[in-house]
Amino acid sequence: MPQRQSAFYRQLKKMYAWYAGGFAIFVVLLSLAEGMGMSSRWIGYVFMFATIALYAGIGVMSRTADVSEYYVAGRRVPAMFNGMATGADWMSAASFIGLAGTLYFGGYQGLAFVMGWTGGYCLVALLLAPYLRKFGEFTIPDFLGARYGGNAARMIGVFATILASFTYVVAQIYGVGLITSRFVGLEFEVGVFVGLAGILVCSFLGGMRAVTWTQVAQYIILIVAYLLPVVILSTKVTGVPVPQAVYGGVLQKLTTTEQTLFSSPREVEVNAMYKARAEAFDEKIKGLPASLEAERAALTVRLDELKQENASAKDISSAEKALKYMPRDEAEARKRWTEARAAAAAKSAPPLPHTAAHAGRDDAESSRKRLNFIALVICLMIGTASLPHILMRYYTTPSVKEARESVFWSLFFIFLLYVTAPAYAVFAKFEIYTNLVGSTISTLPGWVASWGKVGLVKIEDINGDGILQLAELTLNTDVIVLATPEIAGLPYVISGLVAAGGLAAALSTADGLLLTIANAMSHDVYYKVIDPNASTQRRLVISKALLLVVALVAAYTASLKPDNILFMVGLAFSIASSAFFPALVCGVFWKRANKAGAVS
After folding, report:
1. pLDDT band at residue 412, thresholds of 50, 70 and 90?
2. How many CB atoms are located within 10 Å of the residue 362 CB?
3. How many other C-beta atoms lie within 10 A of the C-beta of residue 597?
4. Angstrom distance (rounded) from CA 478 to CA 480
5. I need a surface site. Which of 88, 101, 142, 293 has the fewest CB within 10 A?
6. Tally of CB atoms within 10 A around 256
């Protein structure tokens, strides 16, 4: 490593060491402030705006007008720091917020995500990263255009980049809105656009240079935020502050708890009531459209009776509301009742044990689940190795050797989170099964109501006994990580820290995705196809304008509250893997690969 690069590396380590120490002091001071009476809302405000201001400061200090710096950070990012930046770029809101929740509900089956995502980096190290760096281009469509010749492969690459990255970035901005609405008290839609401002200040002025150094800072915050709550919870439950090593013992206790809980008389009673509800909805669906008219008529008669009897305002209001929200026609009734039937049917039997592997009603179903598990692992591996915003990061290293090393560092920093996610799921489930289920509904902890306001927790006392049974509790996958500090009874400052970590995860990935889209459009479409003689200044202006437009469209789409985060990420993976992986691998290793094959 040249002397100048070595000095730069030492300076970076010193700067980020001071940064990490300063952040630790900041958290301690907020903890002391909470002890002195600082409200939870103000803690949320301070965490959110202080971290966004920090990222904005790094973004402003990293501004540049140099094309190489803007697109590939001057190709001088050391392997370890590129690994941290890649880790932050990769660990999106889906990983930070959604993965532990998926493992909570899916148990063994959820491990497919961990295996697939980490395995994908092995493919990146072996098949792609060093060779892409050797080509020395700016973007993935740039590589396709140079390798296969002409603009056909380039333009298809641009289209796939935009489609995959846009789907992914909407999921990240959705995650930002979710976090700000809960921890700061903003409306979801307002939180989305506040988060958008945080994203833009990190990437607008400095491009890849600014994004890289903010992502390193964001990684430090997100990994501390992810590890600290489960370390404290592990210490509380087992006395050992290494959850990754001791959660197996808690899993054994959880298995025993599941056996007792699933067979308890009250739980069996509730399961039977949900089964009856599912069967009732099934009969109503079969009886359409007559069943819809009969139910509307019955509600109308009931409302008239309540008014004639001078019933309470609450009862009359409830009947009016039920009549108002009746399905308008047969199609809407079929859709809503089918969803309600599925929800009730899911609660008509206890969930699968956490350790159940490929469990099914018969051998055929078990075999199908096993094949689906393997297929999902393979698809996620290929998708991980094909995401353009990740592959772009390996253009930023000083050499091919450091590109290969940075893949190792990427996998190491990502592994720190992924090896903790199963422990998160087990500890959270154990706390809920032992300390929440079976409690009196009137005395449930405050986090149940607070997360219920944003639609992530739902309680229904279907048997009216005032006691919470497991089937009466509905949790969204996204709530497991965000609510774990409150579930464990930890100080609110830990909840604020988790929110800051989730925000860092969403912002860091959104930065990289927006930059990938803008660079593909400005470099591969405008500069390479429309105006090859464009000046440096014009190229950067076009890129920044496109960055702003794409960000606004993505924020608006996220404000419409599309499907859950993990589903949207899976969609992006499917697009990227089918569009890029064959063309990239064949382009690197098969000399006879040509434009006709790549385009087809």
Report:
1. very high
2. 8
3. 15
4. 6
5. 293
6. 9
The C-alpha atoms of residue 530 and residue 509 are separated, in whole angstroms, by 29
Q: Which two tokens stand for residue 506?
A: 């969403």
Q: What is the rounded CA–CA span in Å between residue 484 and residue 491? A: 11
Q: What six digits make up the tokens of 280? A: 């009732």
CA distance 195 to 182: 13
What is the C-alpha to C-alpha distance for residues 292 and 296, in angstroms, rounded to an integer?
6
Q: How far apart are CA 552 and CA 546, in angstroms?
A: 10
Site of tokens 């994908």: 120
DSSP 243-256: HHHHHHHHHHHHHH
Write out the H or E segment, with its range, that includes residue 473.
strand 473-475
Residue keyed to tokens 């641009």? 158
Quickly count: other Cβ atoms within 10 Å of residue 429's Cβ.
23
Q: What is the pLDDT confidence band of residue 598, given thresholds at 50, 70 and 90?
A: confident
First to last CA, the chain: 42
Q: How far is CA 161 from the centre of its chain?
A: 19
Q: Tell me the sheet residues that pair with 457.
A: 475
* DSSP structure class, residue 530: I
pTM for the whole structure: 0.86
Asked, as a colleague might, if the bond just before 398 is cis with ω within 30 of 0, I would say no
What distance lies between CA 54 and its chain's CA centroid? 22
Query: Which phi and psi (to 5°) does residue 440 adopt?
Result: -70, 130
Cα→Cα distances 437→20, 103, 252, 414, Å: 39, 19, 18, 33
Q: Which 8-state DSSP code applies to residue 456?
A: S
The length of the chain in residues reads 600
- DSSP string of 534-597, one letter each residue: --HHHHHHHHHHHHHHHHHHHHHHHHT--S-HHHHHHHHHHHHHHHHHHHHHHHHH-TT--HHH
Return the structure tokens found at 256.
Answer: 């025993």
Handedness of CA 493, 495, 500, 504 (dihedral sign): positive
- Using pLDDT thresholds of 50, 70 and 90, give the confidence band for residue 154: confident
Residues 6+ apart with CB under 8 A from 3: none
CA–CA distance, 191 with 465 (Å, rounded to integer): 38
Report the SS3 class of residue 459. strand
CB burial string 392-409: b at 16+ within 10 A, e below: bbbbbbbebebbbbbbeb
Strand 473-475 vs strand 457-459: parallel, antiparallel, or unpaired? Answer: antiparallel
If DSSP codes are grouped into helix, strand and coil, which group holds residue 440? strand
DSSP 77-120: --HHHHHHHHHHHHS-HIIIIIHHHHHHHHGGGGHHHHHHHHHH
Contact 163, 576 (CB under 8 A): no
Whether residue 252 has pLDDT greater than 90: yes
Q: Please answer whether residues 505 and 499 qualify as being in contact, where contact means their C-beta atoms are separated by less than 8 angstroms.
A: no
**What DSSP character marks residue 395?**
G
pLDDT at 382 over 80: yes
Angle at which helices 400-418 and 207-238 pack, to 10 degrees?
Answer: 30
